[in-house]
Amino acid sequence: MEMLGYTHAHHEYRERLRLFLEKEVTPNANQWEKDHIVPKSAWRKMGAAGFLCTWADKAYGGQGLDFLYSVITAEEMMRTQQTGLVAMLHSDIVAPYIDSFGSEEIKKKYLPGCVSGDCITAVAMTEPGAGSDVASIETTAVEDGDEIVINGSKTFISNGINCDMVIIAARDPAVENKHAAVSLYIVDDGTPGFTRGRHLEKMGMHSQDTAELFFSDCRIPKTNILGKKGDGFMILMQKLQQERLMSAIGSVAGMELTLEGCVAYAKETEINGKPLSKLQSIKFTLAEMATDTRMNRALLDAAIVGHMAGENVIAETMMAKYASSEAGNLMADRALDLFGEYGMLEDNELVRSFRDVRITTIFAGTTEIMKTIIAQSMGL
Amino acid sequence: MFELTKPQKEIQKAARDFAKGEFDKEIAYELEMRQAFPKKIWKKAADLGFLGIHYPESFSGGGLGILENVLITETFCRSDSSIGSALTLATSASECLLRFGGEEIKNRYLPRLAEGDILSGRALTETQRGEDFRNIQTTAEKRGPVWIINGVKQYVDNGGDPDTGLYIVLCRTASADSSPEAGLSLFLVEADRSGLTLEPVGKKLGNNLTATARLNLNEVEVPIENLLGNEGAGLTCLEQYFDESRIMAAARAVGNASGSLDRALEYVKGREQFGKKIAEFQVSQHKIADMATKIELARLITYKAAWHFDQGKPDSSLSAMAKLTAARTAMEVGAQTIQLFGGYGFMTEYDVERYYRDAKVIELQDGIKDVQKDIIARSVIGKIR
Q1: What is the pLDDT of residue A66?
Q2: ipTM, two decimals
Q3: In B, which residues are within 8 Å of A282 by CB distance?
Q4: Nearest chain A Cα to B361, which residue?
Q5: pTM to 2 decimal places
Q6: In this complex, do A132 and B274 lie within 8 Å of one another by their Cβ atoms?
């Protein structure tokens, strides 16, 4: 049963993308994992082939395609065994801020580069003292004539090293209400006062450049704002929905891939003279994994349909994000059991998935934040 | 019944003091990067008598039981999961020598293991699954006064470490035709025998301070006395060995889980979000409560299994229950600890992610969950008509 209205053109796009990734991306995955970063040229190749910001208007060099193309891209990227060329973050999380809340001038300046991959983007909300508690950010933005002066530090920023521009959340210290004090600004790479801190070592997602960013009397033009002054918190809350939906798409696609790998392994591996798949415990384990995957797929697809129709699917999206990330972790864990000791070797690609998925219950809003919002949606 | 004896508490304290003085997060990080064994700490631990505490004193051991070994292991792994594991696996599978070897060969190697002169490695598995005993292809053939061994072993711990002195190798000594499991025997193979080569398997998910390698045995010659236990008794010996090794795996897991909880507690009491300490949120408190409860259960069953072993009543089912429960606990506690840490939990800088990776390796070694459940079920259900 297909809930999403994929057309022939969508399928064709998926095929084209899959071939591209098999040739240009997957063969580099191990090297990028070692390097802890993806070369900028990989982003430009993705852009040149038409796989970044597919939704962007033709006026900005885009293709004006629907959200299903973003879904397809996110799903197919999960097959590449790397997390550094994180198209969904760039195309479907960061660039939409510019599209929705940038001035015409800003859109003209940045969107064509987002589409071509010449402008790699990042968004910086999290600070050492402000994780789940976004409103308690301490980075300040103070007006000085035609300029904004930014001071503060951000951490855990994906694309933190590679980014050509970063959208940052900062507060006006003169405004007392902590939600009303937040605005979003664009800071270009190379702006004096904007420096990188440590390139952070992580449990997984090794090919992704996660970094600390520092701003010290960093001056940007006043026009580098998204929305109006004080809109920052509202914009973040609005845009976090798609971010969480993207996260759920990644989790479900990851589960589907893991299931595929486990079923194949169980069929081809013999133990004490019998295929693993003939053991009742293995059959039931795989049946449970398949059921978990389908339940999460159903919840996700319903949220995608609602999201595309512009309906209020906040609760469903939070549920999909929370459920699929938790289920994805459980599944990555159970998958290794199937392999026994071979499940502890880095050679086994499911070990990489096991390390990578651990963050999915934390990033883009923790499971606890998701549950808080779901409870709110029920008037609790 | 529910209290350790005074000497046992003293051992625990000595292990805690040693770990506090010698183990260090930065050292563990650096060793993991290089996939290197904590050699200096191992030498010191041996000097202080922490290795082979369960060997008789006549072999430079502590003359104590496996419960004491559990206490040391748990304490070490709690203080640092990877360093602790590496130290306790320094004498990996040496229990096969201790329990089944002849006096002379025991005398030759057990003191060297206890004194931190050599490491030992376990070479049992051949296919991807450890319990696949029917498929053991490595052969030992008797030629006059010697045995000639040929075959390939996977996942050999301490494999290829320059300090490794011997391997415990499972071989087929009789045809698999009649009873595929009856023709197996255990051998001690010295690391410097000619025809023996090792290939590293690369990085592992966790437990990276202990080397893992593939062992190739090509016409390796060992004397008769290197046969451990009777010819054809390999599987029976192994079953007894696993009764002990699973308790030790459980001890590592209990230590790992306790170490995660220690770090979680420190973090939630220090970190503030939304104007409160993380520890002040009811949901965090309940998480901590669940974690502590699971650890207590895992510890109790591990101690009980160890106690049984020391009473001369080893219980395969209880050992399997302890390993199953403790490893799962380490995984669940590790996952919740990372969750409580938020983004920091995913960063290498905070070692809770390493604990979680190490926990999974414990769960995958010494038999996966299904293997433990098969053993428990066999014992609980008994014969089915």
Answers
A1: 98
A2: 0.96
A3: 370
A4: A344
A5: 0.96
A6: yes
